[in-house]
Amino acid sequence: MKTTILLIITLLTVSIAPNCVAGTISDDNNKEASKNSSKSIEKERYKKYKEDQKYLKLAKKQYWASQSKQVKKTIKQTEKRNKQNAKTNQVYY
Hints:
The protein is mainly alpha-helical. About 95% of the residues lie in helices and about 0% in strands. The protein has a domain at about 55-93. The chain has 2 helices and no strands.
């Protein structure tokens, strides 16, 4: 019986106390300040995102430019090899 009463009192205290504390802490000024800070955080995140996108775009351009150079180099090497193979094939035929 005593355990049940203590349990009920504990549950009521736990369920009521946070509401009382929350009611005294959250007034209009705090709500407005938190809203403004979250807006500024979002603006900063967006700025960082845009900057990252700019650098990512530049990196992609540089990557594809380097790949293009590598492909051209490989094509030249292949053509050179094919010419050499053609010369050696003529000798054997």
